[in-house]
Amino acid sequence: MLIKRLYPHQAQRSSSAALFKHSGLYFANDEWPMTIRHRSYFFDQGILFECRQCGACCTGDPGIVHVYHDEVESIARYLSEGVLSFIEKYLYTINREYGIKEHADGQCYFYQDGCTIYPVRPGQCRTFPFWFENLRSSKKWRQVSKACPGIGSGKLYYKEQILKIINSTFVDHVNNIP
Ligand code: SF4
Hints:
Blueprint: H1 13-23, H2 34-38, E1 47-49, E2 66-67, H3 69-78, H4 83-90, E3 91-94, E4 97-100, H5 123-126, H6 132-135, H7 138-147, E5 155-157, H8 159-175
The protein binds iron/sulfur cluster.
InterPro entries: Puta_zinc/iron-chelating_dom
Protein name: YkgJ family cysteine cluster protein
Organism: Candidatus Desulfatibia vada
């Protein structure tokens, strides 16, 4: 359930991005103030992570995995499906975007002993676990680490890389605040 979001969007991603950009709470990565880049974080030395495709975050309690319009075509192409039939088989509409259908037990339609669309998985999955809400405190990060066996081994993500991913997930975090 870790990757799934529990609350639907309140606004379209693009308009929200503009809103937060103008309010000063969201920055294009090359516009970050030096204070954000250079202050100290608990992940200053980087974080090891490599997804083991264990499925802990793609199964279990129901939730929402968003697929944005600009992600639909590449997933459909990867599955050799036409866009319309792909949408009909695998997605449902949620506000003006899509969510991935789940089986009755909460398992993602694309999880079968591993993610069947891994190379083209949606941004929500691709950026996990380096989400704003997961890294905003070391306490929260410890909770996420306990549930995800991919954290702590594998590829080293440097602080700068992590900050970029966090920044890219900030708008989604705000949109999903209940
Ligand atoms: S290793 Fe972590 S990110 Fe990968 S499937 Fe398991 S819980 Fe999800």
